[in-house]
């Protein structure tokens, strides 16, 4: 996968990592941290203490393992002194808001509570760079488990777990579309690399609601919602772009194919939207389903219904596309 949009795959760190020098972390500044009250530890500001508290000093002591590079920056794994493994994302381009506005958004993120949302733990603010810290999810991303892993995690992607993943994704999206209802893009960057899988295959959405933090040219370059047909053709953006992204993920999970939509150069992968549309028009829907799943289940009709929902989410005209509430309603009706 050459495109930098998909480089950040959150692979398990067993043999995909390399250490960084401690000196690459920002230097601790206790005065700046203390000026932000009890939540400022060193220069790392906690917004969610469910995994305990830690500060910049812990980051300075921790060896950092490189997880990947994405359009907005780099991601590393580090183990805090309290034993908690975290992902630290170094964001270079989050420069739309000044300090007070950025602080307010981070506190808002830290208050989010939903079983399918990865709530950040802490952050660090500098004008030229931001650090976002969240819990490390060991199974990795949906992208990795679907396309990169051929071990146990991949073999366990049976119909029940794939349906569980899709249900969790759409429930998380429904939550974000309520919490950030005033935003043009409540998520803005839904794709399989930004869906992390817990040990029980319950999905966690990450990298959501960044739209307000980015200048428009950067958002257009880095956020997947800007690949929606209405933006590509008319430079129009709305919450329906999130639904388009949801549809891509649904089709990806059901077919097992890597979507070419993720690649900015258009080279590689499968155009899942056109492929599904053509097959449906020719009544060849069964051929679309991942043979690893369809051959081991008696739920073919349920799988086909979910495939049709995914296709309805990727309608080229947003007015014909499902909205999030209707997508949730229809997906909840699909049975194992």
Structure description:
This protein has about 325 residues and is an alpha+beta fold. The protein folds into 2 domains: about 130 residues, Phosphorylase Kinase, domain 1; about 190 residues, Transferase(Phosphotransferase) domain 1 (Transferase(Phosphotransferase), domain 1, Orthogonal Bundle). The strands form 2 sheets. It has an 8-stranded antiparallel β-sheet with strand order 1-4-5-6-8-7-3-2. It has a two-stranded antiparallel ribbon with strand order 9-10. Strand 5 and strand 6 form a beta hairpin. Helix 6 packs antiparallel against helix 9, helix 6 runs antiparallel to helix 13 and helix 9 packs antiparallel against helix 12. The longest helix is centred in the middle third of the chain and has 21 residues. It is globular and about 60 Å long. The N terminus is likely disordered.
